[in-house]
Design brief:
Blueprint (H helix, E strand, L loop, with lengths): L11 H7 L5 H14 L2 H10 L5 H14 L5 H8 L4 H14 L4 H7 L5 H14 L5 H7 L5 H14 L2 H13 L1
Length: 176
Amino acid sequence: MMNHSKKSQPDLPSLLNALKDKDRYARIAAVEALREIGNAAAVAGLIEAVADPDESVRWVAAGALGEIGDARAVLALLQALQAADTILQDIAAQSLGRIGSPAVDKLRATLNHPDKQVRRLVAQTLGEIGSPNATTDLVDALQDEDWQVRWAAVKALENIATPEALAVAHNWKRLR
């Protein structure tokens, strides 16, 4: 008699192959199954899927990487954050926020990106993570040419909530 109480484990090599399928719905299904598995091989497949030609596959893969929270996804998500696709940018930023501390140094380095949307998302994400290591970079971002980046930096400093970060945010608001 077979034991049906265990969930059948999907065949990982088949799922990784399905990421190359011509049908985007098959690729999306593979991404969702890989998210459920969440192990190292699954993360590697999801990292590849963030660069899929289809935007829907990229969106689902970027979100899945955030749910898994594996630090190996940071570079792929940073690239997605800098893509022209604003939906992908938002999902990548949220996923980097979920990964947290392992993403902080790379995010700090991206705070000087030429695209103001990327700078704003980076400041917001650093605020969500709340790492005091980002304080100096966020204080520098208060001089950004774009008011949305400046505002995101203020809110991020408030979320970091160290005495220094709170004092800078308070003084910046008072002077505006």
